Amino acid sequence: MLEKLLVFVEEYSMQVTLEQILPQMLGEINYQVFPFQCKDELLKELPIRLRGFRSWIPEAWSIIVLVDRDDDNCIELKQQLEIHAHSAGLITRSSSSEGRKFEVINRIVIEELEAWFFGDWNAVRTAYPRVPATIPKQAKYRNPDAIKGGTWEALERILQRAGYFSTGLRKSECAREIAQHMDIHHNTSHSFSMFKNAIESIL
Q1: What is the pTM assigned to this prediction?
Q2: Pfam families recorded for this chain (predicted)?
Q3: CA angle 28, 59, 26 (to 5 degrees)
């Protein structure tokens, strides 16, 4: 039985998002989100953090590491995360044999956090009512994880055309406003579904 979930993320806006949606996923189970300044810092500090946790983490606790793919090779990035966990002496979900307890799940957000928002456009419209309802029907936005030219940049353009964030997207504020309306059971982003499945596999 899971008693506590620890989540490592690369930026504050992902922490803000998870603090809104994890209670829906975990119920009364405790969690703690550890944000870094950027992806490079997370990848640099992760081996040290994991070794530290390995020395005392209770059996009923689990860890999820969540990073954006950005322009990285997804397989190579996942391999890097797996190596960090194995070097710390932790068992990952990908490496555990059938029925064996794992302590770490590594997940790649393809391409960025904002793909999750495009996957739940009703949440975006609830937070920012002037954005068009037809966005998900447009070919370039139909697949939230394959939006060209940067997902957060695309969201910024849409919001600005609707009269929001004229001086630039404030990512953490935007994340908080949208995430509080997200429905974890209805999201068309594949990476969101994979994250949700990871949580369910721990529970």
Answers
A1: 0.92
A2: DUF4276
A3: 20
